[in-house]
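Task: sequence design from structure.
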């Protein structure tokens, strides 16, 4: 018996990305929602579910987004945060909601506006260090003394553990970067659109 899917990703909306200054997280979210609806051939009246996640900037997006977007038919609203796993969790949550009749069409939205002009590509991860928010104290501050200033350091530790446990190589992880960049090449609003090779990955810092 063939499996009959009850839900699908019908549209994708990506706002302006890269070194963009002077815009709020809400403005990025609204742009993404509009583009996703256009891509899916839907109207705002069709949306009856909204899942969202803020980034590190303040103020981020929150429950007020439904009013800013003019969404008046929502049956499902949730602000989620599973760190870097949130996008996958949103899709899972939306799928379960649709299959159980809680909603029929759900927008999954992430939006952030961490850049402060003048800024650099590292400013998003360095907000705490640059004084854009109070530094952590107590146990939460211990990591800073060892150098991890952003989530990448934690992922690096996880990658090293995976290498030690399963024999994963840097070249195998590099293949992910190469394939991801290959998709970005076809995206007209991607920030990096130059193809890379495994050799480029291995020779990078």
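Answer:
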């Amino acid at each position: 018996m063939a499996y009959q899917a009850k839900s699908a990703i019908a549209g994708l909306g990506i706002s302006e990305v890269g070194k963009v200054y002077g815009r709020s997280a809400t403005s990025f979210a609204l742009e993404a929602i509009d583009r996703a609806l256009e891509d899916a051939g839907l109207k705002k009246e069709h949306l009856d579910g909204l899942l969202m996640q803020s980034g590190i900037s303040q103020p981020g997006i929150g429950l007020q987004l439904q009013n800013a977007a003019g969404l008046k038919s929502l049956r499902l609203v949730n602000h989620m945060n599973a760190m870097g796993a949130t996008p996958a969790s949103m899709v899972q949550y939306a799928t379960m909601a649709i299959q159980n009749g809680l909603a029929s069409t759900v927008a999954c939205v992430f939006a952030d506006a961490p850049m402060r002009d003048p800024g650099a590509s590292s400013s998003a991860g360095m907000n705490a260090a640059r004084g854009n928010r109070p530094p952590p104290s107590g146990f939460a501050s211990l990591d800073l003394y060892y150098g991890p200033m952003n989530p990448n350091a934690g992922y690096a530790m996880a990658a090293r553990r995976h290498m030690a446990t399963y024999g994963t190589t840097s070249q195998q992880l590099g293949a992910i970067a190469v394939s991801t960049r290959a998709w970005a090449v076809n995206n007209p609003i991607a920030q990096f659109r130059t193809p890379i090779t495994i050799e480029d990955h291995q020779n990078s810092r």
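The first helix runs from residue 25 to 40.
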